Amino acid sequence: MCGIIGSTGKKASLIDLIEGLGRLEYRGYDSAGIAVISDLSKLERLRAVDGTASLALLDELSKGINGVYSAGIGHTRWATHGRVTTENAHPHFDCTGNIAIVHNGIVENFRELKEELANAGHVFTSQTDTEVIAHLLENYLKEGANLTSAVSLAMTQLRGAMAIVAIDVNDPQTIVACKRMAPLIVGSGNEVNFVASDVPAILGKADTFYQVGDNQVVVVSPEEISLYDLSGNQLELSKIDVEWDLDAAVRGGFHDFMSKEIFEQSNSVRDTLLGRMNPDGEIILDEMRLKIDDLQEINKIFIVGCGTSYHAGMVAKYAIEHWTRLPVELDISSEFRYRDPVVDSQTLVIGVSQSGETLDTMAAMHEASLLGAKTLVVSNVMGSSMARAADAVLYTRAGPEIGVAATKTHTSQIVALLLLALYLAQVRHNLQLSEVGEIFSELQLLPPKIDQILETNDKIASVAQSMVDVKRFYFIGRQIGYPVALEGALKLKEISYLPAEGYPAGELKHGPIAMIDADAVVFGIATRTRLWEKTISNIEEVKVRGAKVVMIVNSGDDASSSLGDLAFEVPQTHPLLAGVLDVIPLQLFAYHLSIALGNDVDRPRNLAKTVTVE
Ligand code: M6R
From ligand 1's centre to the CA of 99, what distance in Å? Predict the structure, then answer.
């Protein structure tokens, strides 16, 4: 849940470390810190604790130290163990002050280890789980190990999902890192080599990128990058194809990443569709490593995901069931693995995860695999842990998403899942190729329709600004409108911090309608999908109880618009694709309301972009 970086080489610089941390801030920003070895002998550490201003403070503090160093590491923290204090900020040292480490993840057995180490005389200066790692390394180094084998030995003692990066003044040009179910990549540039939590952190600084697998130790020096397993056997490095450019990772003229990413949605949807149909009119999913025979044998599908990714799965469920006639069960990842799901070799479990690193979803997929299911992940990050572990992977090609609130990856996830549904229907002969082709053509019409919605941005902004004093929001819809309502409410909650609930419109009368009064604003998702008439009746029910109603309607549908106090328009599409379009005005509304409330939309309080803890 934290961001980590390290660099070594003649051209290693504090600027790169701190800029890299800036690009990792989406992973947490409770505090930031760096440790560098200067003059090949001195370990210097700076730590700043000032919430979202931590990095600016760190940058200021760094002016007081030597900017030229041999090896350095950095960290941006999302606190799990130990409050947000300087003592708990990373990097952490051992007793000698020769070893520094940064860590992302959780050491599940840190209490036992800490007790043992403390009994053996180690002095702890923080309440973190991380610090035990530094002291374990100290022990192994004292026993004669070098830093590489010390890291391997320590990793065999540590339980949990994590990535660690260590430096040692006695080996002043080397960085040693290791990961287990947490993100970590390596990059090499011009006279400088890096490790980092993800590619954007070192984009433009490194030109070649390599994967690090679980329980692999990477040793990075100015001259070379070597990879080992925990027993010390050397492994081959495998490159990551990185098509993102630096421009894609920075704000590109927008006020913040979230608005940039909302406005990128026609491109991200277009990219997700690129090359997915061959000249014979068949859907092709080239990352599909499952055989057609396997897919023909499937008799049940589970979709697992968290938050926004879960909502994408929920939208897709309707299309998968309709087009393939396969039953689809939907599960929140953190519930799936503990509920003894009925899964066997004829089950396909689809994990939806933008980052491909969310621990809950990763663990659910792992459980599914153990139960013999076939697994497929829909992810935005090439070579992510989940992408590598699953039987098949479908990439969403949305480009890096930095804003904590997922927007463009959500719409791309829906599109990828719809492609998968069409592919399944094609290989299982549920749909004729001509029908697949017709729906694919509708998918290709989505990008210009998204642009039409984005043109209504100013109107949505002014409505949002007029609602800064509203204290409660509800979002209601039926069928696909229901997950759209849930996602609209989640977006608003996470960046405005206001109470916002999504409900299936038909369920209101069974309880929630009691909350409706003149202080409530209700968004009614009323585009022309199958249950439009019934949805309209449910919207009438809240209207007569005094709520202010904002309708999401198809362009030019005056009959629907006139039912609300206000209406946001979206173009009409195939009813099973409507989830891609109907959510966009809700993303824009949440964005503008939060900006009007003075919130930091890219870094909402208490949240992190990638949740690598259970
Ligand atoms: O990386 P993932 O898609 O697995 O992340 C899942 C959720 O943590 C994520 O969608 C979260 O709900 C976002 N903050 C939503 O905006």
Answer: 34
What is the enclosing helix (H) or strand (E) of 352?
strand 347-353
Q: Is the CB of 379 under 6 A from ligand 1?
A: no
- Burial tier of 372 (Cβ tally within 10 Å: 0-12, 13-18, 19+): exposed
What is 454-596's CATH superfamily? Glucose-6-phosphate isomerase like protein; domain 1 (3.40.50.10490)
Whole-model pTM?
0.79
Lookup result for tokens 């990066």: 165
239 has a pLDDT exceeding 70:
yes
d(CA 46, CA 6): 14
Largest CA distance in the chain: 79
pLDDT digits (tens, 9 = 90+) for 529-563: 888 889 999 999 999 899 999 999 999 999 999 99
Q: How far apart are CA 72 and CA 38, in angstroms?
A: 9
Question: For residue 576, what is the DSSP state?
Answer: G
Assign domain 3-249 to its CATH superfamily: Aminohydrolase, N-terminal nucleophile (Ntn) domain (3.60.20.10)
Distance 405 CA to ligand 1 centre (A): 7
Active site residue 471: no
Using alpha carbons, select from 495, 567, 603 the residue that is nearest to residue 257: 603
- The answer to whether the CB of 354 is under 6 A from ligand 1 is yes
Ligand 1 contacts CB of residue 353 (under 6 A): yes
Q: Identify the CATH assignment for 261-444 out of 3.40.50.1820, 3.30.2130.10, 3.30.565.10, 3.40.50.10490.
A: 3.40.50.10490
